[in-house]
Design a protein that fits this description.
- This protein is an alpha/beta fold and 258 residues long.
- It has one domain: TIM Barrel, CATH 3.20.20.
- 38% of the residues lie in helices and 16% in strands.
- α8 packs parallel to α11.
- The chain starts with 12 loop residues before the first strand and ends with a strand.
């Protein structure tokens, strides 16, 4: 996915309303993964006329970060919460890698959520930090990824990366979401997620599909009309109880994401 011209910005460190995070740091704008279920375009209506979107880099992100951290009370920072921090462009630009060094120097805990094995590159920095890494793993089946996450790394590669991060002694978690009824809510899907969590000592956060207008539009191209209707009417209560039951069986900590 090509990079747009650098994006001007006044700030890179923002107060967060997300559970467990005091701040967010987003050096990139846009996302090349093009996940059909992503509701970021709905939150920034009009900013992303096409999806997947070109990835823009915020001008002076690292200098602004140093300055803003110096004026901020230490707290947990979510790394790139409105786009994947480990976009393909990060492999060359290394802005997230450089930011990790800054957070480490300033003593700010960080929380990363990604779909990319590229995070393994930064284990040398993460090992000495107050850090956690979460992987979005919606299914163990690559065909699910090909259908709903066309530009993202394959689910199987995420599972291997999860094992690599956990094996390095870094806290890990799995984001099992969004759950799309009829596509990744089977007992097999749930057991795979829970077994991966047990194997890597990860906690599990789960979440339903959020059918915002632009999400509905994109999903409508991949799911028949009747399937969309069933998703809209689906009762998640029983499914959530099953997830919690399997987690109890395997001694895995789990909770709703929101």
């Amino acid at each position: 996915m090509p990079i747009c011209a650098n994006a001007k910005c006044k700030s890179v460190l923002s107060k967060s309303r997300l559970p467990g995070l005091q701040y967010t740091f987003n050096p990139y704008i846009g996302c090349g993964h093009g996940c059909l279920y992503c509701y970021v375009p709905d939150l920034f209506r009009g900013k992303f006329p096409i999806w997947p979107a070109n990835v823009a880099v915020k001008e002076g992100a690292l200098d602004k970060l140093r300055s803003e951290l110096g004026r901020s009370k230490p707290g947990v920072v979510g790394i790139s919460t409105s786009t994947d921090p480990y976009q393909p462009v990060e492999a060359n630009l290394k802005i997230v890698r450089a930011s990790l060094r800054i957070f480490k120097e300033e003593g700010f805990p960080i929380s990363i959520q990604t779909k990319s094995p590229l995070v393994l590159r930064d284990l040398d920095i993460l090992r000495g930090m107050d850090a956690e890494v979460g992987f979005t793993i919606t299914s163990h089946r690559n065909e699910f990824g090909e259908r709903f996450e066309p530009g993202a790394p394959a689910p199987t590669s995420r599972l291997r990366a999860l094992e690599g991060v956990s094996g390095s002694g870094i806290r890990t978690w799995i984001f099992y979401g969004p759950i799309i009824p009829g596509f990744n809510d089977s007992e097999e899907d749930i057991r795979m997620i829970v077994e991966a969590a047990a194997r890597t000592r990860s906690r599990v956060l789960y979440d339903r599909i959020n059918l915002k207008p632009l999400v509905r539009l994109r999903l409508g191209a991949a799911i028949p009309k009747e399937g969309m209707r069933e998703i809209s009417l689906f009762d998640y209560g029983q499914l959530y109880r099953k997830i919690e039951e399997f987690c109890r069986e395997r001694g895995v900590s789990c909770s709703p994401a929101f």
